[in-house]
Hints:
mainly alpha
Amino acid sequence: MSRARFASSVFLLSALLALLLGLVALPDWAAPLRPFWLALVLVYWLLEAPDHVGLGAAFVLGMAADLVFGTLLGEHALRLLVLAFIVQRFRPRLRFFRIGQQALAVCALLINDRIVSVAIRVFLGEGLPPPAFWYSPISGLLLWPFVVIAIDLARQRGRHAT
């Protein structure tokens, strides 16, 4: 298997896992802490393999998330497109941050994603979300190092297997 094909398969598997993790039922008290798994996976791939993953992949992932989660068609697509654009714009800086600094940058990206989500909700007339809505970026901040390690390990194992 070629390197490009392997990278694509690991990307697809990680995106599928992120979609499945987004569907996992959580207790009411833990639901606001659910990280935006797709955003975490997308940011990883935008930083590590920008030749394979870009705005098109962000749009397709977002549309898939809209269909899987049953949200407004295009909501996740817009959110992930904005996120992907920002990551691509600042990739040269973000790529060489230490993992802790990257986690803070990812938290800022996830807060921006929440702002876009609130703007969509307000535009639709749904009103402002509860304060617990803003907890998710914190869990993304805490999980970022584990996401990086997990996907890096999957990529390294695949390189040695081919």
